[in-house]
């Protein structure tokens, strides 16, 4: 992480830290929405930005997480935050299952398939699949989350919970970006043939990225369920997927600060200009077209890693007995 | 048996609509290798324009049913074709040399833009067509009931498909379209104006989509601003089913999908109707990505 970025994060964190004292409940609630969308968009960014897989059914994984949380909570009285890992696992498992046969499809076909998958999930939820999802009305009466006996209920509580989750996510995803896994994803996005030729198991990496992103969305879904206390299929329709997609494209695919900026612009800006509420999607569509023509890489584009001389020297000085066998497997 | 035949004819009528829209997808995909996401919305514009023109010009009273419908269809198709050309200029031409997925995002943006522009102009509510221009005739065949409009739908789509097929196979412009579909660079070197070919494709495709929108309006008597999305997705499924880039394939895929959907809705479950089409789409992409009639081998990677 460059120093400039670190300073940027610190400034943003400082502004966020004082905002509960400066804002009223409504503004804080908007900020909480921004945080939730940021979580979701960061998880989509792993799939769309890092691995370059055009996924426009992300709301489906979000829905799987939210519904898992709601069902576990209302039927088995498992607290939301305890259910969090299960929700993530459920969404990841679901994503791995549905993506396995289609992950090799070329970009635009994958886009269509994920749209179809998202719609199938929504229709299944509306039709009360397995008698668990409550049909078109959804599930209500979800208990609020609790942390160490403290019930999370005011906007300030949720602000801490959600933005805490965003901070953890940003940290972890930056670590992931720098890891072997993250670099492999970037490689296969830029040139799948060369990546495959260099021994990157592209199919497996794509699948893992897909499942990981979906699992993260599932956990965000659980937080959403705990915040709203009632969920219904309409919260997970096609337009949710479109908005998430737009956030990633607008901010800069693959760029974590870009996605954070994108979440703020897409979620908070329309709230500031309430008068244009009906024209919101019109503007989004226009922005997508204009962005592709004018600034394809997004507002805060991903920065390619450049090694400093210091690092290169350190690498040269390192002992040579690293095991290079992994590639030849 | 009666119910089966009734559902079959219902399915064929809906399938005819899918086929007409699918022809537009397949033409654009054939030449530009681009999924024109905004195509479904151009179809919706056809439905809305038909309603407005029908309501304001009183074509039925002035020209009679047959003349009125023909003039109406011509006006709608011309207007939607003009929109298609404008769309290509604004959203796709600047991205001709960009990575293909940028064009896909732009197409998606165009779709959202067009759809919401329509909502802002007409309002979000379902719009009802004025008194139908067509006589309320129907054929009864045993216990099977076939309204005139459904016959017109199927006939129109078959005639349009045949005309388009002959146009692409037999005329000089058609040859240029096929050449550009195979290799734009080589076509350009042979003296083919690829930009003109693309413009022609964006006249034909949207014109057919607009006609389909008009037919839907006349058939159901109402239109809404989001209908292009679901029809577009299904027509795209039809194009994939028949083999994208293949004109008779779009026809076969459209009619087949319409019938599958009608029968599945009748015998399995109505509330899962839309899910069946998406399942067909996913299955065909997994099992046979080239579609039923597709000869082109799908690109690997």
What's the helix and strand layout?
The complex is a heterodimer of chains A (329) and B (301).
Chain A: H1 3-22, H2 25-50, H3 58-76, H4 80-99, H5 107-126, E1 139-140, E2 146-147, E3 150-151, H6 155-178, H7 180-190, H8 192-197, H9 202-228, E4 230-231, H10 238-251, H11 256-272, H12 280-294, H13 309-317
Antiparallel strand pairs in A: 1-4, 2-3
Helix pairs in contact in A: 2-6, 2-9, 2-10, 2-11, 3-4, 3-5, 3-9, 4-9, 7-9, 10-11, 10-12
Chain B: H1 2-32, H2 39-57, H3 59-92, H4 100-122, E1 127-128, E2 138-141, E3 144-147, H5 148-170, H6 172-182, H7 184-189, H8 194-220, E4 222-223, H9 227-242, H10 247-267, H11 273-287
Antiparallel strand pairs in B: 1-4, 2-3
Could you provide a short overview of the structure?
By secondary structure, chain A is mainly α. Chain A is 69% helix and 2% strand. Chain B has 301 residues and is mainly alpha-helical.
Commentary on this structure:
The complex is a heterodimer of chains A (329) and B (301). Chain A has 329 residues and is mostly helical. Chain A is built from 13 helices and four strands. Helices cover 69% and strands 2% of the residues of chain A. The longest helix of chain A has 27 residues, at 202-228. The radius of gyration of chain B is 19 Å and the shape is globular. Chain B has 301 residues and is mainly α. Mean pLDDT of chain B is 87; it is low at 297-301. Chains A and B meet through helix 5, helix 10 and helix 12 of A and helix 4, helix 9 and helix 11 of B.
